[in-house]
Amino acid sequence: MKDKTVAILESRKGDHIASLVRKYGGTPFLAPALSEIPDVDPAHIHELIHGWNSTPPEIFIFQTGVGTRELFAATDSLGLTGALLRLLDAAQVIVRGPKPATVLRSRKVRIDRAASDPFTTHEVLAEMHETPLRGKRIVVQRYGETNRELQAALESEGAEVIEIVTYRWALPEDTAPLQRLIDALGRDEIDLVAFTSASQASNLFAVAQYHGKETSLKQSLVRTLVASIGPVCSNALRKLAVRVDIEAHPPKLGPFIDAINAALSDPQRNGARDAPHVR
């Protein structure tokens, strides 16, 4: 990473990633592309939990640590955490990855099934493959947007999906850093763009499109190394016709930074944008 400029689109952990880039001798270019907006409706959660006393869900799926934490914060404020814990104890609890699992264990919730690495929707569905779903009521803790792939798969098996919204993703209020990144890419001042979520890619292109620079952004990314935290993010980039040069495996921050450093330290990769993926 030495003497290389790395664009960071992460918001919540942007400063931490920037410090890691500096540790390896690189220059971070911070352009937060995502804002997490709390979207908890206490009245809705109150209504759901009281309704579940007579028709309890058979399965709960927790997808993110942030969302799981926000749900418990809401039930704490409503005095309904005990009721939620009883519902979870009587149901099958499935987690998408280690972050929601950590939050649930802190509440002493039993976890019945956990998606395997790389913790995508595919692995969640694989864990449920032999579970009869017809007529089952399944609660899905939503992350920043509806997981349409998961919802469609569950409903195709005859399940009733109940989504709990705890936060949503949006563009940052200040998009000037994203505009500066698009311009810097156009001047070939960025060596690598690091994407840590699929929504970051969507938001970057939304800003480019608004300013009439979508075509130039795509052309710039052809000349720039693109790093993805994992397969969900990579799929979103490919749908936008963006080539993915580096994908972390497993999809965690440590391996992600290591992969970026390895790619930027490889003299054969510098200037060779069509090199194989680093894993």
What features would you describe in this structure?
The chain is α/β, with parallel strands linked by helices and 279 residues long. The protein is built from 12 helices and 12 strands. The strands form 3 sheets. The protein has a 5-stranded parallel β-sheet with strand order 2-1-10-11-12, sandwiched between helices. Strands 6-5-4-7-8 form a 5-stranded parallel β-sheet, sandwiched between helices. The protein has a two-stranded antiparallel sheet with strand order 3-9. α3 packs parallel to α5. The chain is elongated, with a radius of gyration of 21 Å. 41% of the residues are buried.
Keywords:
five-stranded parallel beta sheet, disordered C terminus, single chain, 279 residues, 12 helices, alpha/beta
Can you tell me the residue ranges where pLDDT is under 50 for at least 5 consecutive residues?
A: 271-279
Sketch the topology as an H/E string, one letter per element.
Answer: EHEEHEHHEHEHEHEEHEHHEHEH
What is the β-strand count?
12
Q: How many angstroms separate the termini?
A: 17 Å
Strand portion: 15-25%
Shape, per Cα inertia axes: elongated
